[in-house]
Amino acid sequence: MINNSLVMIARFPVRVTSPDELTAHIYGCIGASKKSILFFANTNFIVKCRMLIERFLSDDIVIVNDGLGMDIACMLLHGRKFKSNLNGTDFMPYFFLQSKQKLRVFLLGGQPATLNGAAYYLAHTLGHEVVGTCDGYDGIKNASNLVDIINITCADVVLVALGNAEQEEWILTNYQQINAKFFAGVGGLFDFWSGDKPRAPKWMQSVRMEWFYRLCLEPKRLYKRYTLDALKFLVSCIKYRKQSIKS
Q1: What is the reported pTM?
Q2: Which residues contact 36 (CB under 8 A, 6 or more apart)?
Q3: Half-sphere exposure in the Cβ direction for 122 (13 Å, CA)
Q4: Residue 242: per-residue pLDDT
Q5: Peptide bond preceding 165: is omega within 30 degrees of 0, i.e. cis?
Q6: More confidently predicted of 38 and 232
Q7: What is the Cα–Cα distance from 81 to 74, expressed in whole angstroms?
Q8: Alpha-carbon distance 182 to 87, whole Å?
Q9: Which of 59, 111, 142, 157 is the most buried (most CB within 10 A)?
């Protein structure tokens, strides 16, 4: 099972773990019919999800670190880096490939065409069964009984790609009413699975510069995230520094 090491980053409890430990924890919960939730905390998550922070204090929830900003914050606040960089783009395929059985997965979020491409990738590349989908636009607006729809599919896993903090709030609000055992907020994962957006070259990933590659591709959409929101993240880390160190 997952280790109990936590660090506080701007009052968010972030788990210090590895892909193997995290995967074992999630499959252990699924095998024990226990619900588990996985959130990937990058600087945008810390900024956007602050109003939900009290709702993250549940044994069902694991928050892991995603990105260079979180490593820098951990070094400044706690004098060490995280054990691994647990971004959803890398971890979720790894998680599915470790499964000894075919999982039933429901996908929520993204544009319709993107969603279809992600579903194809999950089924044909990762080898799992997509039992249902709902896009994040007209689909979710018109699905007043979405919880019932998901339950009818008998999904084991629900992946939610609505962006921070919509996806986190949706999961927190609905997961207890859904029979699935594992829920994850996956942000832009469907864009990568469908091929709509490319990953950075391997060398940029290895030096932790994928954020810069994405910024160059989508400057209008991501400029605020990597400037103003990054500054807000830094201010939050400083503001809650004493609480983080005490924890």
Answers
A1: 0.93
A2: 25, 26, 29, 30, 60, 61, 62, 181, 182, 183
A3: 28
A4: 64
A5: yes
A6: 38
A7: 6
A8: 17
A9: 157
